[in-house]
Amino acid sequence: MYCDDSRGTDIDHFQPLAVAPLRAFAWDNHVLACSFCNSNAKRDAYPVGADGVCLLVDPTAEDPARHLFLMLRSGEYGHHTAKGEQTIRVFGLNRPDLVQGRQNAFCLACSNLRDWYRQQQNGNPAAHQVAQALRDSPFIDVVHAMTRLTPQLTNSVVDEETVPALEHWRSVYGS
Ligand SMILES: [Zn+2]
Hints:
The structure is a single chain. By secondary structure, the chain is mainly α. 46% of the residues lie in helices and 9% in strands. It is built from seven helices and four strands. The chain has helices at 35-42, 82-91, 96-121, 126-135, 140-147, 151-157, 163-173; strands at residues 10-13, 30-33, 68-71, 76-79. The strands form two sheets. It has a two-stranded antiparallel sheet. A hairpin with a 4-residue loop joins strand 3 and strand 4 (76-79). Helix 3 runs antiparallel to helix 4, helix 3 (96-121) crosses helix 5 (140-147) and helix 3 (96-121) crosses helix 7. Zinc ion binds at residues 2-3, 5-6, 33-34, 36-37.
């Protein structure tokens, strides 16, 4: 739920037990996370603003894109809001292994998109399987960020060869 990297193996109490012991068994306070995010990154962190509202993006209730943006070429997250800034800090979203993983995922996604596009154009039914694999990739936030690129940004972020493939992908899978 937090890093989009490893499979979830732990149940994290989004509102930590140290902060809200009475929420220990609240269903909507249980979030699937990898053990690194749960035990090394977040732990008991739960920053709140002066108004008492939590300063972490709740992945069960909010669209992270309102608070965070992914810089596809560098693999790093930037923030739109204070909540986004705290979320990056607390979850370590720019830790080196995640940044490298996103760079790799971006490189592979571009290559797979071109492959998917070529197969689509040729009417090859295998295109469907490539699309499925792309949509199930680790670091799926990379594919989401690519799908959400504005047409103006697409040309500066994605290489020339990939642009038509991404535009077609967006017309099929973009919302
Ligand atoms: Zn994680």
